[in-house]
C-alpha cells in the first residue's frame, strides 16, 4: 500500500504529471482545438466554461486535500453551493439546515421554497432531531459564522446515513488542514476558496468536493449555469495552496494567543473561540479538529462600544472577508447580519457589541498592541 503524502506535499505536488513544469502554466484561453467532436469531462477540451487544464489541476489538488473522489472549481463559493443544491434537489424534497450558516447560503436555500422545496432551519443543536426519512439534504458549516459554534458533524452524518440523506459541509472556516468532513461522514464539502485556500485576498473562487458520480452531475449543471472558474483565478488559488498548511497553522497559533488575551481584558464581556477551554464548543472541536481556526469573535458592551473599538484600530482593517494575510475585523450587526431581525439575532447569539476578528499573518505582538489601544477607546 502506497504511503499517503502529507498535506503540504499534496498541496504542492498532487495532480502534476511527470515531466510537467515546476510552475503550472495558465491556460488563458476560451477555446481549444476540438477535432473529434466528443465531449467527455476532463478529456475532450473544447471551451473553458466546461473545462480548462489550469482549473482541472486545482480540482485534482482539492479532491486530494479533502479526501474526496472528485472536485469542481467555481467562480465563487456561492456558485459552488447553488450549483450543488440545484443538482441534488427537486420539487417535493426537504432540506434541513442550520440558522447559523452564512447569510447568503441561508437566503439561497430559502429561495428554493418557491420551486416546491421545503427548507427547515434550526439551531445546530436541534439539527439531528429534524433529520427524517423525508430529508433529502442537510447543509451545515464545520465552524459557524460569526459565533464559531461547532456542530456535531459525526452525529449529524450518522443521522443522515440512517435516513438516506446527503450531508453537505461548508468547510471554509476550518480548511482541510484543521478538519476533513468527508472523513467524518459528509458526502460533499464546499469552500469559499476566496478565503484560506487562496489566502491572499486577490482571487474569488469556490470548490465542491464529493463522489465522482455526483460531481459529474454537478459539472453538467455548472456548464449550463455558467459558474466556471477562470484560469487566472485558478492559478492564484493553486499558488495559495502551496503555503496553506503553513498559513493555517500560524493563524491557528496567533488566534489562540489573541483569544486568550481578549478573554482576560476587562472591556471584553465574552470571547467565542473553540480553542478556549471556556468555550462550550471546546471538547467537540478538540475531538473533531486538528486546529481551531484563525477567526475569533468577542463581545463588547454595546453597539457604541463596538463602533469606538473599530474607530480606534490602526493596523487592523475593517473588511468583510477572512483567511488572508491581513488581519480584518467586521461588526456583524451592521454588516453581514443587518437584515436579520433583532429577535433572530438574539437567538443566534449575535449581540450589538459582537465583533469578528479574522487573524492574519502579522506579528502577534503588533496585533495585540493594536487591539489593546482600540479597546481602551471602546
UniProtKB/TrEMBL annotation:
Q: Name one GO molecular function term.
A: pyridoxal phosphate binding
User: What top-level branch of life does the organism fall under?
Assistant: Archaea
A cellular component term from Gene Ontology for this protein is: cytoplasm
Q: Look up the record and name the cofactor or cofactors this protein needs.
A: pyridoxal 5'-phosphate
**Does Signal appear among the keywords?**
no
Gene3D superfamilies, alphabetized: Aspartate Aminotransferase, domain 1, Type I PLP-dependent aspartate aminotransferase-like (Major domain)
Q: What is the name attached to this protein's record? A: Cystathionine gamma-synthase
Q: Which family does it belong to?
A: Belongs to the trans-sulfuration enzymes family.
Biological process according to GO: cysteine biosynthetic process via cystathionine; methionine biosynthetic process; transsulfuration
- What organism is recorded for this protein? Methanosuratincola subterraneus
Keyword annotations for this protein? Pyridoxal phosphate
